[in-house]
Write a structure and sequence with these properties.
Rossmann fold; 18 helices; single chain; binds iron/sulfur cluster; 8 strands; alpha/beta; 4-stranded parallel β-sheet
Length: 390
Amino acid sequence: MELIKQLPQIFEEFAEQKKQSFLKLKELKEAGVPVVGAYCSYFPKEIAIAAGAIPISLCSYENSSVIEAEKILPKSVCPLVKSSYGFAVTDRCPYFYFSDVVVGETTCDGKTKMYELMAEFKNVYVMHLPHTQSQRGYELWENEIIGLKEYLGEQFQVVITDEKVREAVRLCNQHRRAMKRLCEVMKLDPVPVLGQNLFKVLNGYKFRLDLEDIAGEIDEITDRILSEYEPERIGKRPRLLITGCPIGGDTEKIIYAIESNGGAAVAFENCVGVKMLDRLVDEEDENVYRALSQRYLSMGCAIMTPNSNRIELLGRIIDEFQVDGVVDMVLQGCTSVSMEAVNLQYFIDEEKRIPYLNVTTDYSPADIGQLNTRMAAFIEMIKERKPAAF
Ligand code: SF4
Ligand code: SF4
């Protein structure tokens, strides 16, 4: 990537990444490279890479596919499940189409049952995810990771050696380090870029296929942002953290509602963002599967019980990014995240003592007006609490 390009252009390129990667994936597929599709951050992509396959994120963020899914699935299911299934059953997700296998995981009930239905028309391999981060849970997940390795080895007729897995671990850790460093530019106050632009890179990177080049490209973007930083370009704004259900596609309306009403989305503790990047896989552990299990199962997703890792991470983000307020995005039908909001709000109100806003939404554009009204009022309230700051 040439550095003479303007930063906004770079962000747009990442936003377009999904479309560009489709053609490249088609070429790779024709050359005999296997593809492994997945939906969830618990998917240990290192195993797919070690098998010589391309790991790819599958489409799950559009309202149009929700409408298709509702012809089959109950309307009360969360839009992420409906959108994933809708894309799959109508063959509208090219990444799903090209996937030799879809790796699912028993996270929430909606997704678990969706994989059963999906298996009627696709090769689906389900990993059994423990919901607690106990010693036994880590051992179970380690065995599930080994099970995936054996399954992919058999499917693709390759021997997946421990050394290949270690190489994949090093590569994915490089990505995580680079992405985390990029996220950390938002610690600057005022912010150097808007969160909506940062998000384009965070989300677009999931569709990059040139795995060896990712870390270098991300580092270049980070260096550019830092070297071209002008505090007055965006100016002081209330700094908001977005947490909750996975965000992307049609739910980016939350980010736009924040930033078009004078706030800045400084951090994402959703599945695209700091949660995914916070922990590395221990490269020194002599048992690489144990190291993978430790890293993946430690993620603080709301399907874990108890879920103290999420609270710990949120506390750190709030302090390190000087967060003024938290927006908790709950997708309609997501019991885990909506129930966890009770503890989360208590922690933010009582321990962090900053404003909290719970936004329950879906993928439709119907609530954009209401979202703008609520976000404007929330941001105004934050400004009134700190009149000297803005
Ligand atoms: S929120 Fe949890 S279950 Fe959903 S994609 Fe992220 S890690 Fe997976
Ligand atoms: S948002 Fe909630 S209900 Fe939907 S797939 Fe994720 S965990 Fe399941």
